[in-house]
Amino acid sequence: MSPSFNVLLGLLTVLPHYYLAQAAGFPAPLLEPLLEERQASTVPDYVTTYAPVVWLYSGETYFPGDLAAQLTNTVPEINYKPITGYTTPLTLNNLAELNAFNGTQVYLTSTVDITTNPAWLNGVKPDSTGKTEGATSMFVIVNDHGNGEVDAFYMYFYPFNWGGIVLDQDVGDHVGDWEHNMIRFQNGKPSVVWFSQHSFGEAFTYDCLEKQGVRPVTYSGNGSHANYAIAGDHDHTIPNLNLPDDGLLTDFTDQGTLWDPLLSAYFYSYNPSANTYTPYDPSYPSNWLSFLGAWGDEQYPNSDPRQHEIIPGVSATAKYTSGPTGPEDKQLNRTKVCPTSNEFICEIHTKLGP
Predict the structure, then answer these.
(1) Would you indicate the residue range of the signal peptide (predicted)?
(2) What does pTM read for this prediction?
(3) Which of 102, 195, 284, 289 is least surrounded by Cβ atoms within 10 Å, i.e. has the fewest?
(4) Who's near 306: CB < 8 A, 6+ residues apart?
């Protein structure tokens, strides 16, 4: 059923009540929220029409994964010790209960040694249609700022992040990986697209981007899943400066496996004043969106035999780093297209580049 049909159906449902109430003498201003509430219960059609498609790297081994499966294969820990006293089993419908346990200190930690390469870390490779069969791996969050300005966040989940090779050593591996595109719409038309890249990213005008039909194309970096607007090599040694030549830290992208995240997605609206999330479909779990903790293991200490650091004492050079926080920590009510980590250099590119 198309989003536009849902909108029409919603109006047909609410309009009789609207006119009956109007005939009963209720003033129009009191009736308008009734229409607005019903219209807000359907995903805006432009959010799906312009949803990105993703090219995964041809050599990728860590694919998008099912978010619920991450809970099946992890336990919550603080300071490397399992916590107790929460509702079990943990699900996407009760995960935010962990916030009561000093939530920002909670890490969803793998139940098995990840150096044994458990199969669940590999995620689900998209099939010939681009679908991650059996895995819900994209979560769309819509924030309506008013005056026709709407931000749609397309959040991509991967069970594992491979950080790459630096000076012949693995660096920056971690359980759990969140990346995203954000499209800013004005009166239903896409204007600017944000591409998350590690802790930073880039913004491009919609018009300059590569597209499939009208849908913008994202290239996912090998292992790290950082999002880029073009295929090729991306040296990101210097934050916010992506160079086309290989450097100390390089992501590689190409047209390997096409992933259409829209085929396995949940959709939500976000109310920033109340900091609440409302699923567009009542069957979508939403409690998990408020979880404040990390979606992976805490960085292993140097005493752990699995761990090493290229530069002793510099945790950023460690083989295994901490898992990421989720959508709650991704600045869903940003003023600029760029998050605050990029505000000092929030350039919106009008031409494609690395």
Answers:
(1) 1-23
(2) 0.88
(3) 102
(4) 113, 115, 300, 319, 320
SS3 content of the chain, % helix, strand, coil (to 5): 25, 30, 45
Contact 323, 317 (CB under 8 A): no
Residue 206 has pLDDT above 80, yes or no: yes
Q: Which residue has the tokens 């404040």?
A: 292
φ/ψ of residue 34, rounded to 5: -60, -45
Tell me if 100 sits within 8 A of 134, measured CB to CB. no
Neighbours of 30 (CB within 10 A): 10
H runs (alpha helix) in the chain: 3-23, 28-39, 45-49, 67-72
Gap between the Cα atoms of 109 and 70, Å rounded: 9
pLDDT per residue as tens digits for the range 81-134: 999 999 999 999 999 999 999 999 999 999 999 999 999 999 999 999 999 999
CB atoms < 10 A from the CB of 247, how many? Answer: 14
For residue 158 the two structure tokens come to 């991967």
